[in-house]
User: Which sequence fits this backbone?
């Protein structure tokens, strides 16, 4: 089992920045690929970014490329999502998730609300 707890959400104006954190406990954090997902009101949950176990490889959905940066600190068992130049369409509940290498995302956090006003 892996327990994930997000923090760092909030309400900001368009153009501002926020950093989400996801603290992991339980199994060895570095064994897992980590991802960020989000779900806006009335919409399905969507992929935002992912990072390999080592942190070397990352991937982003097109709408956040150049604005968001995913990173991890395996020594601190923590995943991050730096969000810059936020837009109202970034408003959503953001979830972190963990997947075994080659597997599907099987562990999820409770979510952190991010609200961006225009």
Assistant:
């Amino acid at each position: 089992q892996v327990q994930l707890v997000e923090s760092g959400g909030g309400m900001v104006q368009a153009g501002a920045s926020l950093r989400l954190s996801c603290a992991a406990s339980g199994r060895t954090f570095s064994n897992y690929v980590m991802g960020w997902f989000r779900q806006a009101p009335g919409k399905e949950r969507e992929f935002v970014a992912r990072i390999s176990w080592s942190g070397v490889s990352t991937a982003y959905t097109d709408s956040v490329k150049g604005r968001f940066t995913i990173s991890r600190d395996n020594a601190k068992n923590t995943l991050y999502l730096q969000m810059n130049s936020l837009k109202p369409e970034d408003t959503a509940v953001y979830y972190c998730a963990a997947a075994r290498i080659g597997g599907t995302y099987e562990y999820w956090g409770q979510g952190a609300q991010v609200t961006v006003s225009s």
